[in-house]
Write a structure and sequence with these properties.
The chain has eight domains: 120 residues, Sandwich (Apoptosis, Tumor Necrosis Factor Receptor Associated Protein 2, Chain A), CATH 2.60.210; 137 residues, Cysteine proteinases (Cathepsin B, Chain A, Alpha-Beta Complex); 198 residues, Cathepsin B, Chain A (Alpha-Beta Complex); 142 residues, Ubiquitin-like (UB roll), CATH 3.10.20; 90 residues, Ubiquitin-like (UB roll), CATH 3.10.20.90; 117 residues, Phosphatidylinositol 3-kinase Catalytic Subunit, Chain A, domain 1 (Ubiquitin-like (UB roll), Roll), CATH 3.10.20; 68 residues, no CATH class; 114 residues, Ubiquitin-like (UB roll), CATH 3.10.20.90. Strands 13, 18, 21, 22, 23, 24, 25 and 26 form an eight-stranded mixed β-sheet that branches. A five-stranded mixed β-sheet has the order 28-27-31-29-30. Strands 33-32-36-34-35 form a five-stranded mixed β-sheet, sandwiched between helices. With 1209 residues, it is an alpha+beta fold. It catalyses: Thiol-dependent hydrolysis of ester, thioester, amide, peptide and isopeptide bonds formed by the C-terminal Gly of ubiquitin (a 76-residue protein attached to proteins as an intracellular targeting signal).
């Protein structure tokens, strides 16, 4: 417990030894040295502490002192005017002993608070802050020990029961035993109130009888609202009475809110809100996003109101929070009134321009005069009339929620700002003056229940709430401050004054009331208790949670043991390059083929055998456990029998490789005789019955209060363990596993079967082992080939029958595969027809070939796609085809295998494959090029996406080519042409693809395009009602552009397709001119571009160009009219567009050329070009000078504000 600071040093600055200052940038390290006049130099180092985030000053002196001193550090405001207006200052004092040569660290302020803007302590001009350092002598007893300073809070002592309203709550008077004596001046104004210094052991429950809510990151706004609603007793009763017996505990908002309220009543420490936000449907990032508390209040009430519908508590939310207001418009000179009644759950009142709450109410109901240009359009044929518009309250709710408009849009800053103006509100409120009709006195009288305070600015801040839990008792003036987990009593005058706001508009204070809750007189005295069903449910949840926590705490005492059996080896099918024995489960999961158990590390191997005997039913002396190990080739096999170790050894000593061991893998060998050397054996676990006791012994973990009792082994397991006799493996023998491969079995997965295991002497020959296998499978006259399975990629034949197993380098855990003897002459020739059917139809006569198939076998899903000129690549609405393929298959084999299953494919050359895109989750735009993949150039391994998360489901896409083969398609040239949006005959088609022969001309390409356009138009016309107008006769023109805005040239129809340049920056553009235009002799077709520039600079094109045909009789006005009609530009806008001639990327104008000057408006185009000094030719274009349309800007990404979402219960 920190002792009080002595009176001699209550104000060290009154008689300091010396005073100095130091300044530096926020977030930087800076120091200062000061001589004290006694041959000593003080060193002050200021730096940000990376761990705590505090600004720390490290102080030391060059030589020791004979007496203690007091160092006082004050954070100085950057503006003296602000300093004089501040009611409190940031100051820390620390007692230094005589030996000040050892550095002492003093925490001053949190770095995040210094970085808030605006900040009264940081200069906006320099970015620096300043500290005042004052040192004075202190007269202290020798036995007194200095301690570090702590923050101070003002706590008001009071009387009465617990604010939560429950009998078992701790009374408020007990707080004085945990707090230090007051440091006030003893004036009358401080009677019953003291500055109490809280130590680090401050407990809100003990001090106030209440607990707070934990902040998940930025959920202070939610905590403040929940505390407010909790202490509204009618609302709390309504929440408790909501039926939730059948609700899911993970996603029911009402149930989660009931749980929070229950814990606020019964818990002895701060309550977590994670289950509530999880029920909201919030993610982890949502907890770090601050929202508006009023928005949360509305949405939460809406969800609760929906939940309460058609239940006994239906309508309770409106009964508590809903008021009625009437908006009216009344004509002054005629008898015409329009009104509408609306309900409200909260009122939003102005702060700016209003001194107090009454002024805001008066402004809210102020009558507005509608006259002049703003006259009201009255009904009943009265027309425009002078009228009065206003609001009048019909009723106020029992609980009145008022939001103060502290945030508004500032047009000067082009953003939202916070209004820090002082705004006063009363403790007692009478709203009778604002009622439209007379009402009972109690229905308009309210008392202040809670004040939600926002500290900060528009960019962020912190919420906390002042609540008067005994608000139903007007004589009780005890207020409490709920700041997340911390709850403290506070004087009423301090509550009101700190909530009104600052007259200095944020320079000295950032805290002000944001939301007020008033309770109607007589409301709030509802007595209630926690429903028994809810209490029982939540108590059971807490018991289960404590049990899970205790189990997690004891997890380090156990080993997770996974035991492989003959059944697990037999059922294994999923071969990989390192997995070839059994399925190895993850540490937190267990395969259904493995026996799983938790074994105490302190148990002996003998007790382990007893536990396995209980859980499997295998006789205690008919089993042998093998420890499995991972070899250098990454395969995992049985390696060493546990019976080689003393049975008194602990499991931790034998099985735990290191402290990070998460699971232990064992193999259970079942013995058919005490000495089963040379006998092939295999047992099914179904033939044994686990020894499940009739009554489960009492688990000490079930006793909630017995946390110290160690876990125990079942007595029957202990009894069986005493009968265990070690079963060591005979010397010079090895454990082998035998599998049989039969290539004649049709099902590929059933060709390799597990036979059993055998312990055999290592000096036995391969021929001897062959005889044992022949005898076991009853094939004495059938020669066998035996392979050693080193790993799935290495299957080696044991070709020497006279070699011993030791000479073959066999060891414990090795796998041998036997099959009927084969030779080169007996291997059948592969049927060529099988190559197109797939790998499952091929022959794999030997085990090595079969394993090659297993390792390269994958399932590929082929999805059909269609390619359209406007839609691009889209997946067709047909069933996908799943084929089993090999990674080593060639591109040609894959396509041939697929063609067999595609009914409408002529042959394999009429299929085109597309790769899968992980980012697009669909096909890529570019297909596989047949000419680059055919032959041995590409295998399936290079075609699939190797980054897919599911290595057993790969995807490829195929397109059926109906007429041309892929060889012919790839020989052709593909054009992606853009169509003019101004041409009506295109009917809105903006892009189309063409497949052209390189020897075709542009004229042929345009004719093909016109045919496709006609087909697309007729197809769309048949589905439209009414049908579109008939298409006019047009001539198509191909234009080479740059970036689809600059016309480079019109390509001649006689140009070969192979000679047309195809680059992304110069897309092909198609426009049309009418063929039936009878305007006389034609000058030709020219391009028209949109541009903006100065006359002396190069033009800057924008927007989509077009073409126009010029005639000898055309005037400038005719050309402008045709262009305006074609582009559908309004007259007012087109009047400002200037017509120019463009040559060599420069614009030439003759006067304004806007049509406003008759001299140029009626001039022929040929004459106009002559005056410009230009000739009509291929390089000549027309231009329209005007500003480009404004670009649609993306919203700023600095901070994306998302609305609050709470899912329905």
């Amino acid at each position: 417990m920190k002792r009080p600071t002595p009176e001699a040093v209550d104000d060290p600055s009154t008689s300091p030894w010396f005073v100095t200052t130091m300044a530096g940038f926020v977030g930087s390290d800076f120091d200062h040295e000061e001589e004290d006049g006694s041959d000593g130099t003080w060193t002050f180092d200021c730096y940000p502490d990376c761990d705590s985030g505090d600004v720390v000053v490290k102080v030391s002196r060059s030589t020791s002192l004979g007496a203690p001193t007091v160092l006082t550090i004050t954070l100085l405001p950057h503006n003296p005017l602000v300093a004089s207006a501040m009611s409190e200052q940031v100051q820390q004092s620390v007692l230094l002993d005589g030996d000040v040569t050892e550095p002492t660290n003093v925490s001053i302020y949190h770095m995040s608070s210094l970085m808030e803007q605006p900040n009264p302590y940081v200069s906006p001009m320099t970015g620096k802050f300043a500290l005042k350092l004052s040192v004075c002598w202190a007269a202290l007893d020798a036995n007194e020990v200095p301690v570090a300073p702590t923050t101070t809070k003002r706590v008001k002592t009071g009387t009465g029961g617990s604010p939560t309203g429950f009998d078992d709550a701790t009374v408020l008077d007990s707080d004085l035993s945990l707090l230090d004596p007051p440091l006030g001046d003893g004036s009358k104004s401080d009677a019953g109130l003291g500055d109490l210094t809280m130590n680090v052991n401050y407990d809100s429950k003990v001090a106030t009888g209440m607990v707070g809510l934990k902040n998940q990151g930025a959920t202070c706004y939610m905590n403040s609202l929940l505390e407010t609603l909790f202490y509204l007793r009618p609302f709390r009763k309504a929440v408790y009475d909501t039926p939730t017996a059948d609700d899911d505990s993970t996603n029911s908002v009402a149930l989660a809110l009931q749980r929070v309220f229950y814990r606020l009543e019964t818990s002895v420490k701060a309550v977590s809100t994670k289950e509530l936000t999880k029920a909201f449907g919030w993610s982890h990032m949502d907890a770090f996003t601050q929202h508006d508390v009023q928005e949360l209040y509305r949405i939460l009430c809406d969800r609760l109101e929906d939940k309460m519908k058609n239940t006994p508590v239906d309508g309770l939310i409106p009964a508590l929070f809903e008021g009625k207001v009437t908006s009216f418009v009344s004509c002054v000179n005629v008898d015409c009134t329009s009104s509408r009644e609306e309900s409200f759950y909260d009122l939003q009142l102005d702060v700016k321009g209003c001194a107090n709450l009454d002024a805001s109410f008066e402004k809210f109901v102020e009558v507005e005069m509608l006259d002049g240009d703003n006259q009201y359009d009255a009904a009943n044929g009265f027309g425009k009339q002078d009228a009065k518009k206003g609001l009048s309250f019909q009723s106020f709710p029992p609980i009145l929620n008022i939001q103060l408009k502290r945030f508004e849009y500032d047009p000067m800053r082009d953003g939202m700002v916070k209004i820090h103006d002082r705004f006063e509100f009363p403790k007692e409120l009478n709203l009778a003056a604002y009622m439209a009709k007379s009402a009972s006195p109690d229905s308009t009288k309210y008392h202040l229940h809670s004040i939600l305070v926002h500290s900060g600015d528009v960019h962020g801040g912190h919420y906390y709430v002042y609540i008067r839990p005994h608000g139903q008792d007007p004589t009780n003036t005890t207020w409490f401050k709920y700041d997340d987990e911390l709850i403290s009593a506070i004087d009423e005058s301090v509550v009101m004054e700190t909530s009104f706001g600052s007259p200095y508009a944020g320079m000295s204070s950032f805290s002000s009331a944001y939301m007020l809750v008033y309770v109607q007189t007589g409301v709030g005295t509802v007595e209630h208790s926690i429903p028994t069903a809810l209490a029982t449910r939540f108590q059971a949840e807490e018991v289960a949670a404590r049990r899970r926590k205790r189990l997690a705490q004891r997890e380090h005492l156990f080993l997770q043991v996974r035991i492989a059996t003959d059944d697990a080896v037999s059922r294994f099918r999923r071969y990989t390059r390192s997995l070839d024995f059994v399925v190895l489960s993850k540490p937190n999961k267990c395969s259904q083929h493995l026996v799983s158990c938790k074994v105490l590390k302190a148990n002996t191997l003998q007790q382990l055998y007893g536990q396995i005997h209980m859980e499997t039913g295998v006789p205690i002396n008919a089993m042998r456990l093998w420890k499995m190990a991972t070899r250098e080739n990454q395969t995992t096999r049985p390696d060493e029998p546990l019976d080689n170790f003393p049975m008194e050894s602990t499991c931790a000593m034998v099985l735990e490789e290191d402290v990070h061991t998460k699971q232990v893998l064992l193999f259970l060998e079942i013995l058919d005789a005490p000495q089963s050397l040379g006998r092939i054996k295999r047992f099914h676990m179904q033939s044994f019955t686990p020894l499940i006791p009739d009554s489960k012994p009492a688990d000490p973990l079930d006793e909630i209060d017995d946390d110290l009792a160690p876990p125990q082994l079942h007595p029957l397991a202990i009894q069986a363990a005493t009968k265990r006799v070690p079963q060591p493996v005979p010397q010079n023998s090895i454990l082998l596993f035998l599998k049989r491969y039969d290539p004649s079995v049709p099902n590929m997965d059933d060709r390799l079967t597990y036979v059993g295991n055998i312990v055999v002497a290592h000096d036995a020959t391969v021929s001897k082992l062959t005889e044992l296998i022949q005898h076991f499978v009853d094939a004495r006259d059938q020669p066998l080939d035996i392979y050693e399975q080193l790993q799935p990629e290495a299957i080696n034949l044991l070709d020497s029958s006279t070699a011993t197993l030791l000479e073959c380098e066999l060891q414990h855990g090795d796998i041998l595969i036997f099959q009927n003897e084969t030779n080169a002459m007996s291997i059948p020739i592969e049927d060529p027809a099988n190559l197109t059917k797939g790998p499952t139809d091929r022959q794999y006569p030997t085990a090595p070939l079969y394993f090659e198939y297993l390792l390269n076998r994958i399932d590929v899903v082929f999805c059909r796609v269609t390619v359209g000129p406007s839609t691009g690549i889209t997946c067709a609405n047909t069933a996908a085809i799943t084929l089993t393929c090999l990674l080593t298959q060639s591109y040609d084999d894959v396509v041939a295998q697929l063609a067999v299953h595609v009914s409408d494919a002529i042959d394999a050359l009429h299929l085109r494959l597309y790769p899968h895109s992980t980012s697009l989750k669909g096909p890529k735009d570019s297909p596989f090029q047949h000419r680059l993949c055919t032959g041995d150039q590409m295998a399936l391994r290079g075609m699939i996406d190797n980054f897919t998360t599911n290595h057993h489901a790969y995807s490829l896409y195929y397109e059926v080519l109906p007429s041309l083969s892929i060889v012919e398609v790839e020989r052709k040239v593909k054009w992606s042409v853009h169509l003019s949006p101004y041409e009506p005959s295109f009917h809105g088609v903006l892009e189309m693809d063409l497949l052209l022969d390189p020897t075709d001309t542009v004229a042929v390409a345009l004719a093909m395009l016109q045919t496709q356009l006609a087909a697309a138009t007729s197809l769309s016309a048949s589905s439209q009602s009414p049908p579109p107008p008939p298409t006019r006769s047009v001539t198509l023109h191909l234009i080479e552009t740059r970036d689809r805005s600059t016309v480079l040239k019109l390509i001649s129809p006689k140009t070969l397709v192979a000679n047309v340049l195809l680059i992304p920056s110069a897309p092909l553009f198609v426009d049309a001119t009418p063929t039936d235009d009878e305007r006389g002799p034609s000058l030709g077709v020219v391009g028209v571009m949109h541009y903006h520039s100065n006359a002396a600079t190069w033009i800057h094109t924008h927007s989509t160009p077009c073409i126009v045909e010029l005639f000898q009789a055309d005037t400038v006005r005719h050309v402008r009219q045709r262009l305006q009609q074609r582009m559908h530009v309004p007259d007012e806008e087109f009047l400002g567009w200037k017509l120019a001639a463009i040559c060599d990327h420069k614009a030439f104008q003759l006067g304004a050329a806007t049509g406003t000057e008759p001299e140029y408006d009626t001039m022929r185009v040929t004459e106009w070009l002559d005056k410009l000094g230009l000739r009509f030719g291929k390089t000549l274009c027309l231009g329209l000078e005007h500003a480009p349309a404004p670009l649609k800007m993306d919203p700023p990404r600095r901070r994306q504000e998302l609305g609050i979402k709470i899912r329905a219960s």
